[in-house]
Design brief:
The protein has helices spanning about 15-30, 40-60, 70-85, 100-110, 130-135, 160-170, 185-190, 240-280, 305-315, 335, 340-345, 360-380; strands spanning about 5, 65-70, 90-95, 115-120, 140-145, 170-175, 195-200, 210-215, 280-285, 295-300, 315, 350. The protein has about 375 residues and is of the alpha/beta class.
């Protein structure tokens, strides 16, 4: 049975050119980049080349780029590091209800330390109102954190406008760009942020490597201690082969960005429109602007996990939401923040496309969805009336 992957927001396969660079670096670039002998200096050179490549993707200066183990660490470093570096007695953070758990859990940790956190609502389209950010600002606000693009519904936030509001108030602005980097032209938006996070495995690099771009002058308390690597912001021996791989992936993403955006948007619309047209009782969660590869669709009267399993048995990998929340009993916090009732949130699937997907695969997925939904509704007296 052929198997097709439609879960690229969870992770992406390593591309051939990235794999070649990764394996070459694993084999040949084994020196410690902090060592002063020739092996170490060769590793340092390759590391700095990778840093420059990633910096170009996100519109940063190379010296601003801090390599991390991925998006979660980058976002934790941004949120926890910024607030803990501030020595005020009273501190306040502004974020949103639809952030990735990496940000929400970090904010929860700060609350346990006595930091006040405001969680801004979103409308049914999933967009944050910049005026809500302005109204939430206080004299003790030290950080505003708003993601660039949402991992579940793909909605792109107005981060340039929000960054300007934060800058005017002299408050640090952080954006989780994990879903946006490599999929959108993020350089201009990322330049507006004081802190911008990205993760390699979202654009065909290996898992375990990410970056946080830190504007000059921003103070960060490190999460780890033990060395002076990454300008004292992230101690530990740097994973040079993974950084090299992320650099190659970043170059490929920049090279193919415009064409791939258009291609994926066309495939996404083909998939979305066909499902809405052929499957009764369906609707798209969230509004626009959206990532070109993402659609999140509610199937009224259907248990999304049952539909996911049915599609998997037919050879199609999709998702009920964030991969890190897999197995969660509660409905998606993102979908309920849009105003969806819990039963409709539990009836929603995310489809996220990538480089290997074709029109033929999309059409085959549509047929599988039509058959699976019809079968599940026949089994459910409630769903049968949709």
């Amino acid at each position: 049975m052929e198997r097709y992957y439609f879960d690229h927001n969870a992770t992406t396969p390593v591309s051939d050119e990235v794999l070649a660079a990764y394996t070459e670096a694993l084999r040949d670039v084994y020196g410690n980049a902090s060592s002063i002998h020739s092996f170490g200096q060769h590793a340092r050179q390759r590391l700095e080349e990778a840093r420059e490549r990633v910096a170009r993707l996100i519109g940063a200066e190379p010296r601003q780029v801090v390599f991390t183990s991925g998006g979660t660490e980058a976002n934790n470093l941004a949120v926890l590091g910024t607030v803990r570096a501030c020595r005020r007695e009273r501190r306040h953070v502004i974020t949103t209800r639809i952030e990735h758990p990496a940000v929400l859990a970090a904010c929860g940790a700060l609350e346990r330390e006595g930091v006040a956190v405001t969680y801004l609502p979103v409308g049914s389209a999933g967009l944050v109102d910049p005026d809500d950010v302005r109204r939430a600002l206080r004299s003790e606000t030290v950080l505003v954190s708003v993601m660039h693009a949402n991992n579940e519904i793909g909605v792109i936030q107005p981060i340039e406008e929000i960054a300007a509001i934060a800058r005017e108030a002299e408050v640090i602005f952080h954006s989780d760009g994990v879903q946006a980097a490599g999929r959108l032209a993020v350089d201009q938006a990322a330049r507006c942020a004081d802190l911008y996070a990205a993760s390699g495995h979202k654009f065909y690099a290996p898992k375990g490597i990410g970056v946080l771009a830190v504007r000059s002058g921003v103070s960060l308390e490190p999460l780890l201690y033990g060395g002076h690597q990454e300008r004292d912001r992230r101690p530990g021996t740097v994973n040079v082969p993974a950084a090299v791989a992320m650099g190659v992936a970043a170059e490929a993403a920049r090279r193919d960005l415009e064409a791939e955006q258009a291609r994926l948007a066309e495939l996404r619309d083909r998939l979305e429109n066909a499902i809405l047209d052929r499957v009764p009782g369906t609707s798209v969660n969230g509004g626009t602007p959206r990532l070109p590869n993402t659609t999140n669709i509610c199937f009224d009267g259907i248990n999304a996990e049952a539909l996911l399993i049915a599609l998997d048995l037919k050879g199609f990998a999709v998702s009920t939401g964030a991969a890190c929340s897999s197995g969660a009993v509660e409905p998606s916090h993102v979908l309920t923040a849009l105003g969806l009732a819990p039963d409709r949130a539990r009836a929603s699937l995310r489809f996220s496309l990538g480089r290997a997907n074709t029109a033929g695969q999309v059409d085959a997925l549509v047929e599988a969805v039509v058959e699976a939904v019809a079968h599940l509704r026949r089994l459910s007296p409630v769903a049968a009336h949709v």
